[in-house]
# Entry
Amino acid sequence: MTIDRLVSDVIVVEAVASVAMTAFLLAAGALRRHGARRHAMVRAMVRQRVTGALTGRPGSIQAPAGKRRVRPKAIHEIAEYAHTIGGADRTTLASVAEQFGLTDYMRRLATSMFWWRRLEAARLVTLFGVTASDVRRMAGDRNWLVRAQAATAAGSWRIQSTIPLLIDMLGDDAPLCRFEAKQALLLMGVEGAMAVASALRDDMALPPTSRLSARRADGLLDVAASMSEANMVDIGVAYSQSTRPSTRRAATALLAAAGGIEVTDRLTQLLDDAVPAVRCAAARALGATGAWPSAAALARHLDDDAYDVRLAVATALQRLGAPGTVMLRKVAGGGSGRAADMARQTLDVVEHLAPAGAT
Amino acid sequence: MTAREMVDVVLVDFQWGVLVYFVIVNSFYGLLLLSATVEMVRHLLGIRATNMSRLLGSGLIPRISIIAPAYNEEATVEESVRSLLAISYPELEVVVINDGSRDATVAVLQRAFDLVPVHAAIEPAVVTQPVRQVYRSKTHSRLVVLDKQNGGKADAMNAGINACTGDLVCAIDADTLIEPDAFQRLVVPFIERSDTVAAGGTIRVANGVRIEHGRVVSVSMPHNALASIQAVEYLRAYLFGRLGWNRLGGNLIISGAFGMFRRDAMLAVGGYETETIGEDMEMILRLRRRSLATGEPGKVVFVPDPVAWTEVPETAKVLAGQRDRWHRGLADVLWRNRAVLFNPRYGAMAFVSFPYFLFVEFFAPVLEALGIVTTIVALAFGAINGKFALLFLLLAYGYGAVLTLATLLLEELSFHRYTTFRDQLTLIGWTLVESLGYRQRTVVWRFRGIVKYFKGNKSWGSMERRGLARPGAAPDATSATKR
# Structure
C-alpha cells in the first residue's frame, strides 16, 4: 500500500467516523430533548390519573400516541409516586398502573433471560405489591442484584412467611444480599424479632460442628442488636463467649441494645477482651446502657493500648454523665500520658459542646 | 551511504516507530472505551430506578469521615465546609485540616462555625507534622477542625486519618463541591463487595456552572476557552479513562479530589506518602500491592455517577504548573513502584495497567514531542513528504479526536449533564480543535515536568482560584494554593 493510499484511507475513515459520531451525538441530544417533552406529557397524564384515583375524581387527559412506548413510561412514572406513598394508597397506585398493563409488563420482564429486566421487574413488584411466591422466585435468581431486591421487597411489604428465607439469605455470598436481608428482617417487627431470637437460641443448643456459619450468626446478632429487644440478654451473653472475635463483637452490640443491669458485669468483663474491636464495642455498650457503676472500670481503660478503645471509653464516660465526668476529671488531673490526654479532650467537649451523640 | 542518507533513514524509521506507537496507543484507548461502555451500560442497568435515599434510613450503613485539607483557602473554605455539612448522609463527620495556612483560614472557620479549642488526644497512627490545636464546633457537632504545622497535602490528609473516626474516609480537596447524593452512591461499592478498599467518583469542571448555597443548580459549558477544553479532557479522563480500567486490570488512580477509602486499609499501608506529589496514585498502588502480596482485600473501583465539581485553571500559566506537577507526581509514583513492572506477583496490574501508565501516560509527551520535532526536521530535510507528515497528524491526533467524540456520545447516552444544543456544539467544537495547539502545549508542560522531576523538583507550584461560590466573581477574588 502506498503512503498516498494510506493517507487517503485514514482521512476517509476518520472523517466518516467523526461525522457519524457527531451526527449520532446531536441526534441523541435532540431525541432526548424531544423525549423530555413527550415524557412531560406522560407525566402530566399520569399525575392526573393518580390524583384522580387517590381523590376519587378521574381526570380527562388522554395518553399520548404510541401505546407501546407510553405504557412502560407511564408505569415507571407511577412507580415514582410509590416511593413516597404507602398503605392502601399504594394498592390504588397499582390499580392505576394496571390500566397501563402492569401485570403483563412485569410478567414479560420477570421471565426475561436478561438480568436487568428481571431486576426491573423485581423493583416494580417491590413498589406495587409482592407475594411470598414472587419473593421466593426472585430470591432464587442467579443474579445477586435480583436476590437482594427480593429481600428489599419482602421487607417493604412485611411478608412474614419469607422470614426463614431472609435468615437463609444472611449467609449469601453477596454482601448486598446480606445487607438487604438484615434490613428486611428489621422491618418485620415482632415476628422478625421472634424468628431471629428463635434461630439464635436453636443454634445455641446445637453442637459446635452443626452450628450456623459465622456469617449467618453474626448477621442474626446484628439484626438482633438493631431490634433492641430486652429478652435477648441470654443470647448476647452466650454468644459473647464465642471463640470468634466478630461474633463476640456482634454479641456485645446486642448486649448494649438489650440493656439492663444484668448485662453490665458481662460487658465489664469484655473490656478485657484480647481483641481491640471487642473492647471498643464493650465500651460503647457500657456508654449506651448508661451503666454508671462501670465508670471506674471504664476509666482504667483510658490507658488502653488501642487508640480506638481509649476514644470509645472516653465517649462512654461522657455519656454516663456526672459519674463519668468525675472519673474523667480524676484521670485528667493525674498528670500526663495518653489517658490524661484523652480525658482532657473529652472534658473540653463536655464543657464546651453538646453531649455525645447529639448532631 | 552518505551521512545525509543515513540521517534520512534514521528520521524516516523513527517516524514510522512513532506512528506505530500512536496506532497502538490509540487502539488501546479504543479498547478502554469499549470496556468503559460495557461498564457504563451495566452500571446504568443496575442502578436504574434504585431508590438511593433508602440507604439514608438504614442503621447498618458505614460511618464516613470526610477529610478536607486546606491551605490558604480563606476565600473558599467557609462555603466549601458548608456544602460538606449539607451532604445527605446520616453517619458523617467532617474533618478540616488547616495545613499551616498563612492567611486567615482558621479565623474564617472559627467565626463561621463557632469553633472552640479542645485538648488534642489524637493517636499518631501515621506520623505527621505536629497538630497545634483541635477545634470543635458549637453549632455543628459533626465538624472537627485541626490546625497543624505545614507539611503538605499528604501530611494534612494523614493528620485527618489519625483524627477521624469513620469506617470509611473520603479524601477531598477543600475547594471541591460534592453533590448532595454523591456519598449515597459512592458508598454502594463498599456495601456490595466486602473486598472494596477504595472507590472514586467523577470530577467535573465547575467553571461555568451556577452554584447556589453550596449546590449546583444549573450546568453549562465554561465561557473560558482553556476551561472548556479541560471540560472535554475531564469527560474523557473519567468516563472512559477511569471507568474502562474497572474491567482491564483495575484502576491505579482514584482522584485526590474525590475518593473514598477504608480507613483500616489506609492505616495498614501507613497512610499517604508525604515525599511524593502524586500521593493519591501512590496510595492506590500501595493498597493494591499489599492486597496482591498478602491476599488482603484490595478492590479499587471507579463509580461514574457520584459527582464532585472542581474549579479548573483558566490561565495557561496556572494550567502549565498543574500539568507539570501532575506529570512529576506520575513519574515519582512509577519510579517508587518500579518493582511492579512485569512482576508476575502483581498479576494484571504488572502486565496491563502499570505498563500502560509507564509507556503511555508517562512516555507519551516524550514521544509526541520527538515525533513533532522529527516531523518538522524530516520535512525540512526532505526525508519525508507532506503526505507522511499528514499521516502522522491523522494517526496521532485525528484518531484521538474520534475517540473523544465517542466519549461525548457516551456522556450523552448516560448522564447528559450538558443539556443544551449550544453546549453540545461547544463540546464538539473544542474536541475538534483541541489538537490544534492545546495538546501540543500540554506536551510541552508535561515534558517540562519530566525534566523538573529528574532535576529533583518536588514543589507544588501555585493554583489561583476564584472560588466556587462566586463563579462570576472578580478576578482579584483569589486564593492561592502553594505547597
